[in-house]
Amino acid sequence: MTASTTTTPTTGTRTRRAPLWALKLVMSVTGMIWAFFVLVHLFGNLKIYFGAAGFDHYAHWLREIGYPLIPHEGVLWALRITLIVALVAHVTAAVLLLRRSREARGGVRARRTGSQMWFATFMLPTGLILLAFLVLHVFDMTLGVQPAAPADFTAATDGGSPAANLVASLSRPWAAIAYAVAMLAAAAHVAHGALLAVNDLGATGATVRRVAVWVGALAAIAILLGNASIPVAVLTGVLS
């Protein structure tokens, strides 16, 4: 009597993958968190035009929000943790969606035309530029790690002036150019990201799409002109 061979189903061992809608939702929500942060941060950055004292006071206020009810730098660290979690989730979802997209196309890139090509094609490169700039920016303006930071960097916790650190950093042409390029990448990323977020959240009506285009465009222009003006002002001597 011969033993019969049976085939074990492989469906039970198949790796579960997050549904596309969940990944897109994560991308949209975390992207909006970062876009909102960049816009709020923009208003803080523009205080440099009203003098070093006002800018330093703003930087000090960020560390004292809610004190003494909330521990020193408590709100600041809560914001940092939220942004870090959002960034990790955003990058992870982006990588998984890119992998799924390439698997579905068999590794062949989809061809785009018109404005769709100009914006959608550059979402990945602009995202990588922003990620690299974020690391540089933290080493420069927050941690003071050389050579990212200028030699005379002094931390605010040691009595240093954030305004002086900003001017010293952007007085270096390569740092000013890197800052301006990053703001250009941020503007492109936000402009197209607003429309993607609306689509991924299921709001596909023509009116909503138009609003998303305008909101994304206005936010992108504000980020680009507002932030990129600072290194230009430093290099031209308007800020010193």
What does this structure look like?
The protein has 240 residues and is mainly α. It has a single domain (20-235), classed as Fumarate reductase/succinate dehydrogenase, transmembrane subunit (3 helical TM bundles of succinate and fumarate reductases), CATH 1.20.1300.10. The chain is 68% helix and 0% strand. The chain is built from 8 helices and no strands. Helix 1 (20-45) crosses helix 7 and helix 7 (173-200) packs antiparallel against helix 8. The longest helix is centred in the middle third of the chain and has 31 residues, at 74-104. The model is unreliable at 1-11 and 113-119 (pLDDT under 50). Its main location: membrane. InterPro entries: Cytochrome_b-558, SQR/QFR_C/D, SuccDH_FuR_B_TM-su. Pfam families: Sdh_cyt.
Structural class: mainly alpha
CATH topology term: 3 helical TM bundles of succinate and fumarate reductases
Low-confidence parts: 1-11, 113-119
Q: What is the CATH homology-level superfamily?
A: Fumarate reductase/succinate dehydrogenase, transmembrane subunit
The CATH class is identified as: Mainly Alpha
Query: Averaging pLDDT over every residue, what do you get?
Result: 88
Number of strands: 0
Distance separating the two termini: 94 Å
The helix count comes to 8
CATH architecture descriptor text: Up-down Bundle
Helix amount: 55-70%
- The proportion of strand residues reads under 5%
> Rough shape?
globular
* Biggest sheet architecture: none
Element-level helix/strand string = HHHHHHHH
How many domains make up the 3D coordinates?
1
Rg of Cα set: 23 Å
